[in-house]
Amino acid sequence: MFLSFTEENYLKAIYHLSEDGKIDVSTNAISDALNTKPASVSDMLKKLSQKEVINYIKYQGVSLTPSGKKIALQIIRKHRLWEVFLVEKLKFNWDEVHEIAEQLEHIQSNLLIERLDEFLGFPPFDPHGDPIPNERGEMKAKKHTPLSETDLHNQGKVIGLKETSPLFLQYLDKAGIYIGAKIKVMDKIEFDGSLEILIDNKKTILVSSEVAKNILIAES
Amino acid sequence: MFLSFTEENYLKAIYHLSEDGKIDVSTNAISDALNTKPASVSDMLKKLSQKEVINYIKYQGVSLTPSGKKIALQIIRKHRLWEVFLVEKLKFNWDEVHEIAEQLEHIQSNLLIERLDEFLGFPPFDPHGDPIPNERGEMKAKKHTPLSETDLHNQGKVIGLKETSPLFLQYLDKAGIYIGAKIKVMDKIEFDGSLEILIDNKKTILVSSEVAKNILIAES
DNA sequence: ATGAAAATTTAGGTTTGTCTAAAAAAAAGT
DNA sequence: ACTTTTTTTTAGACAAACCTAAATTTTCAT
Ligand SMILES: [Mn+2]
Ligand SMILES: [Mn+2]
Ligand SMILES: [Mn+2]
Ligand SMILES: [Mn+2]
């Protein structure tokens, strides 16, 4: 099935919006995510419904059909593989790759993606710790807890992020936090929820609760 | 200046059509090259003229302005660098890369192209022997003669091709002809212009005049 | 339960890039 | 020189993806 760039972006947005448990995604949520007006979203939902990639009942929100989900996961696979390429091979910083991957994810060629995957050594995760789906749309799900909810004095490892905006990534660089870093919560400040953390048994810093919510930890 | 994919493709087509000496390119030639109707081309020429990337006088053909030429060369640079990437890094065959490069050439990011160029070791030529322009649009021009016009018994090297369609490239693979191959013309058949050639001092084959016209040789 | 607020859809338009059919200009043939 | 043919442009339409403004439906608060 051929879908335009725009249609692909709608499917991807719907997928991401339903990631955190929501079954039905709202028109407004989609228009926010894509920077379009709700009226435009309504138009497009009608079209995507026709193509049977979404389940859509007027006024009642939208969800992906199995075939829509498969397409969304293919696009996410391409996005994340290109991000790995940019960081691992072209020496981009992790905060510089998303915009370019937004373009590269729409390149059409199954062989290209297979070969790229192989060239990169079949990476299971992208530079931000997000899992890369395989050709069938399956991916490793890791058990994770937000840093804000881990117990005092427990040692954990950074395995992912909830936010991946350039500003947040640049902050993490500065703080010395990266995917794989060892983190131990030394103290919780009850007043504002900020945390004193020890990074790699070397450096102690203070992070706000907002920051801590967006860092995902695998406890060990 | 921002140009759409479509506008970029028009500029590239105009550039390629004026490569073999022609000063002015015709509406019909462009419509042929892009598989659109002449009426559509007329529309677009008006728009590109407005943007001052082409010189256009009604009924009198079209040429690129300096700024249009610079843009065209940037796109060709990207196209050819991606072709090198696909062949050198992802192990594509030279007849498989053009279509994918047609998509990749429109990815917008100066940094990406700089880094890709560096990653590939600043290649001066693409897999088909075509020169890769640098950031300023300059490229190596090699003296070349069509194989059909080289002298008997002169040793030469394949440095490029006039045709790069998959079918022609596959034929060359089968014949054992590649960029860099040594070729000596052993005999010319006057009747139909076909040639008996010795490849790499190993194998002698017969090639038609049509084939010989499309192989470019550097005499040595 | 009912009126106000919020969310969503419809109606009617715009822009981009395409098309067909018709008109106009240029080139070619005699 | 004057037809005829070819090339090119214009006129009018259409699909995709967006918009604003207005209508409709749902949700929320009293
Ligand atoms: Mn990304
Ligand atoms: Mn990512
Ligand atoms: Mn090519
Ligand atoms: Mn090429």
Report what the structure shows.
Two copies of one chain form a homodimer. Chain A is globular and about 55 Å long. In chain A, strand 5 (182-188) and strand 6 form a beta hairpin. Chain A is 41% helix and 17% strand. The N and C termini of chain A lie far apart (44 Å). The first copy, chain A, has a six-stranded antiparallel sheet. In chain A, strands 1-2 form a two-stranded antiparallel ribbon. Chain A is built from eight helices and eight strands; from the N terminus they run αααββαααββαβββαβ. Chain A has helices at residues 5-17, 27-34, 38-50, 66-89, 98-104, 110-119, 166-175, 209-213; strands at residues 54-56, 62-64, 145-146, 155-161, 182-188, 195-199, 203-207, 215-219. The mean pLDDT of chain A is 96. Among the domains of chain A are: 5-64, Winged helix-like DNA-binding domain superfamily/Winged helix DNA-binding domain (Arc Repressor Mutant, subunit A), CATH 1.10.10.10; 145-219, Roll (SH3 type barrels). With 220 residues, chain A is of the alpha+beta class. Chain A binds chain B through residues 86, 89-92, 96, 99-100, 103-104, 107-109, 111-112, 115-116, 119, and chain B through 86, 89-92, 96, 99-100, 103-104, 107-109, 111-112, 115-116, 119. The structure holds manganese (II) ion (4 copies). Chain A binds a DNA duplex (30 and 30 nucleotides) through helix 3.
